[in-house]
């Protein structure tokens, strides 16, 4: 036999400490499982937040692009209207000048016609005057 023997009280304290260790070990694994579950929950929350953040950024980018496209279309429309207005004014100016030229020519033609008519009248008057003077010939009635 060995020199060292266990008393009953020693044996019971050994078993108690074994069961304590086993219960402590069970408690540790429960804590570890709880910690793992908490860690997983936090990771899922973080992933969810990250996904929400990415979705928010994507929505902001979509809205920004829509705004840029809207502004681009507005600018194109503004430029198109400016071009139409410029062309309209050019056409109005061209028509105004054509009308002025037409009136100027009509006025010139009217003046020329009046001048010609005045010359014709002067010729007729001179002829009439020459006819009425008798021209050196004696007339007997």
Mean pLDDT score, rounded?
84
Low-confidence stretches: 14-18
- Outline the biggest β-sheet: none
Helix percent band: over 70%
Approximate shape: rod-shaped
As a whole number of angstroms, the C-alpha radius of gyration is 60 Å
Taken in chain order, the helices and strands follow as H
How many strands appear in the DSSP assignment? Answer: 0
Distance between the termini: 202 Å
Strand percentage lies at under 5%
Q: Output the number of helix runs.
A: 1
Structural class by secondary-structure content: mainly alpha
Topology:
Elements: H1 8-132
List keywords for this structure.
141 residues, mainly alpha, 1 helix, rod-shaped
Describe the structure.
By secondary structure, the protein is mainly α. The chain has a domain at 34-101. 89% of the residues lie in helices and 0% in strands. The chain has one helix and no strands. The protein has one helix at 8-132. The protein is rod-shaped, with a radius of gyration of 60 Å.
